[in-house]
Amino acid sequence: MPDAAISLAADTVLSHGFGGPYDAAIVTGTALGLVAGKLEDRLSLAYSEIPGFPSPGVTGHGGTLHAGRLSGRRVLVFEGRSHAYETGDAAVMKVPLGVAKALGVPLLLLTNAAGSLVAQAGPGSLVALSDHINLSGLNPLIGETGDDRFIPMVGAYDAAARKTLHEAAQDCGIPLHEGVYAWFSGPSFETPAEIRMAGRLGADLVGMSTVPEAILARFFGLKVAAISVVTNFAAGIGDGDPHHDETKRAAAAAAFDLARLIDGFVARL
Q: How far apart are CA 31 and CA 249, in angstroms?
């Protein structure tokens, strides 16, 4: 049975002209909403007008759903997200991603601002995610019923989509790294000891989002790709001592390259 909240939200956006088909949906992270402004034939609707959609409470995150054409492809753009640390609910983005599924979106591209644990990917770098480590103790599927909740996570970040990201980056002349993202619940930044632990477990990046959305997307049967914008070195890495203002400034500075990469990626879908 479809989720009633998702059905209501989907009916609402359809009544505002958001019918498909779509080639992809994009979720923008902190200060990374530039791509929404590049849409042609853009249609926009505030999250506050869609039943069940969250109200992002973090500066640097909008709260608007957009539809339009990007590089000749029709896309949905979720400008801004809500985080688990805002309410304690890891499934806070369930309804928006369920709407993407209901509208026939085949692929979800997630973006985020992240801290780096590796010297090669310093502030301003773009990193395609190859896998993740959930260090939060949370899961957006807690409380779901039925066997569908037992989703496999091998290959959660689609290899073909990641290859397309690298091809687009090469054509754009943008260096694109690849790495594993560790999800901490936040909202406090990680301690140097936590970062040392994450590095020993195999993490290249740390952040406070993306992982629950990737899990939900796989639950809904969507393919997933993800890009981190490195805004700082993580705590204890070099002079890493992250602050939210630093995150917003660095993300905004890298947003142009991210938007160009997304253009190139979407054009190849």
A: 8
Interhelix angle 211-219/94-102, rounded to 10 degrees, is 40
Residue-number span of the structural domain to which 114 is assigned:
4-267
CA distance 196 to 131: 19
Average pLDDT over every residue of 137-164: 96
- CB of 137 within 8 A of CB of 183? no
Residues 37 and 64: their CA atoms lie apart, in Å, by: 12
pTM of the model: 0.93
Distance of CA 261 to the CA centre of its chain: 15
What is the pLDDT, as a whole number, of residue 1?
41
Please tell me the distance from the alpha carbon of residue 59 to that of residue 80, in angstroms, as a whole number: 10
Residue ranges of E strands in the chain: 24-28, 40-46, 64-70, 73-79, 107-116, 126-134, 176-183, 205-207, 223-233
Q: Residue 60 maps to which CATH number?
A: 3.40.50.1580
CB-count exposure of residue 196 (10 Å: 0-12, 13-18, 19+): middle
Q: Which residue has the tokens 């505002």?
A: 16
Q: Which two tokens stand for residue 146?
A: 């039925």
Q: Give one DSSP letter per residue of 188-202, joined into a string.
A: SPPPHHHHHHHHHHT
**pLDDT surpassing 80 at residue 31:** no
Largest CA distance in the chain: 52
Rounded to the nearest 5 percent, the helix, strand and coil shares of the chain are 35, 25, 40
What contacts 232, CB < 8 A, 6 or more positions away? Answer: 115, 116, 123, 240, 242, 246, 247, 250
Amino acid 239: pLDDT: 66
Look at the chain and report how many structural domains it folds into.
1
User: Per-residue pLDDT tens for 236-259?
Assistant: 887 656 566 666 666 677 888 999
